[in-house]
Design goal:
Layout lengths: L2 H24 L3 H23 L4 E2 L4 E2 L1 H7 L2 H19 L4 H23 L5 H25 L6
Antiparallel strand pairs: 1-2
């Protein structure tokens, strides 16, 4: 077998794997597909920004430089949130049951970022505290119902 034949065989295997991954994505219901792609996309962007550290980050209508992000204690939570979102997207893509819990708990992972902000900026954020808690609870409830009841057979 020549090198050219090995290359062609490898190329065909890679193409078949790519077509299988795209086919798996196409077979997903729309809400699940959007959740998968959004988790992957946002998670990768958060991780790349955490590594490259270009520009500034806006948190609750406040622009912070990366030095301020690290000093305020946000940096580890950004990395954890990015890793959780990438793991969620991959888990949904390969139809793993554990990924359902990551989707439901993603708001909980982001919760400490809000708590740190509230503790360091206690003036005038009482409305945002309640709106975040209510919004996170509604999304977690929706995704729990959707993933554990409506789309239960998708992960079996």
């Amino acid at each position: 077998m020549t090198t050219r034949d090995k290359f062609a065989g490898t190329l065909l295997e890679a193409r078949a794997a790519t077509n299988g991954a795209i086919g798996r994505l196409d077979s997903m219901p729309l809400v699940l597909r959007i959740t998968c792609l959004a988790s992957l996309g946002v998670g990768v962007v958060i991780l790349v920004l955490s590594i490259v550290q270009v520009g500034s980050i806006g948190i609750n209508n406040e622009k912070l430089s990366w030095v301020e992000v690290r000093a305020a204690g946000y940096y580890p939570f950004l990395v954890i949130c990015g890793l959780a979102m990438v793991a969620t997207g991959i888990g949904i893509w390969v139809r793993r049951g554990w990924s359902r819990w990551l989707v439901v708990l993603c708001g909980v992972v982001q919760g400490p970022i809000e708590i740190i902000y509230w503790r360091s900026h206690s003036q005038g954020v009482a409305e945002s505290q309640w709106s975040y808690i209510i919004g996170a609870s509604v999304w977690a409830g929706f995704f729990y119902w959707y993933l554990f009841h409506k789309q239960k057979s998708f992960f079996d």
